[in-house]
């Protein structure tokens, strides 16, 4: 009988020592396509509720401290063993490029209080599960949308720290969101400036550092 794995993330190196528990069972590292899939045995998809989402994110955050590069996988990814291997077959180059972007880096997330609900969204990796097709539609829309003036000021002040950024226009009750990818060696300096900017830029909040949820490709 084919096993089912609940997938949390791909990492570039297998973490040393015990991986601890996932949502319910011990975590395992399975070699796949030049990477390691961090998985747990599970028979069903966890309920899409706040407790499960937070628990999933906590596991990914713990793994991010143990691996140089991590590609978080969207919440609710449950796959049979053969399907997991097949999905990543011959994608070594794509995975290596994604690891190169996020290695030794972390994400900060900026949100603006007032949503612009008329604009089309891009998928947020740290806000829940959504299909790959919907993500691609949202990404295409976001690529042609100009961030609001409040974010332009932040970008001007923080650009020296930013390796990569992605903007998600507001939609479906979610506010405008700006994701910035930062070198881990610069986290303290970035955070100090970011927190100062929240005091002088009304209506924006910042959180992080997080694993690079918004910068991981849709691999599974």
Structure report:
It is a single chain. This protein has six helices and nine strands. Strand 2 (28-32) and strand 3 form a beta hairpin. The relative contact order is 0.18. It folds into two domains: 4-101, no CATH class; 105-215, Alpha-Beta Plaits (2-Layer Sandwich), CATH 3.30.70. Strands 1, 2, 3, 4 and 5 form a five-stranded antiparallel beta sheet that branches. The chain has a four-stranded antiparallel beta sheet with strand order 7-8-6-9. It has helices at residues 50-66, 81-88, 92-102, 132-143, 149-158, 187-200; strands spanning 4-11, 28-32, 35-41, 70-72, 78-80, 105-112, 162-168, 177-183, 204-210. It has 220 residues and is α+β, with helices and mostly antiparallel strands.
């Amino acid at each position: 009988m084919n096993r089912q794995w609940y997938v949390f993330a791909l990492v570039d190196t297998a973490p040393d020592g015990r991986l601890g528990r996932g949502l319910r069972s011990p975590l395992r590292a399975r070699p796949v396509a030049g990477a390691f899939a961090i998985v747990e045995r599970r028979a069903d998809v966890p309920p899409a509720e706040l407790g499960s989402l937070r628990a999933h994110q906590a596991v990914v955050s713990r793994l991010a401290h143990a691996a140089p590069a991590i590609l978080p996988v969207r919440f609710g990814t449950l796959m049979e063993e053969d399907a997991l291997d097949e999905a990543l077959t011959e994608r070594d180059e794509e995975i290596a490029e994604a690891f190169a972007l996020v290695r030794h880096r972390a994400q900060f997330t900026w949100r603006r209080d007032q949503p612009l609900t008329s604009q089309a969204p891009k998928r947020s990796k740290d806000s829940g599960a959504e299909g790959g097709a919907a993500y691609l539609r949202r990404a295409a829309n976001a690529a042609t949308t100009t961030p609001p003036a409040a974010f332009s000021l932040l970008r001007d002040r923080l650009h020296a720290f930013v390796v990569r950024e992605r903007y998600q226009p507001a939609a479906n009750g979610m506010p405008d969101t700006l994701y910035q990818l930062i070198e881990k060696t610069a986290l303290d300096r970035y955070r100090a400036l970011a927190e100062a900017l929240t005091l002088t830029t009304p209506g924006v909040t910042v959180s992080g550092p997080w694993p690079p949820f918004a910068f991981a490709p849709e691999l599974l």
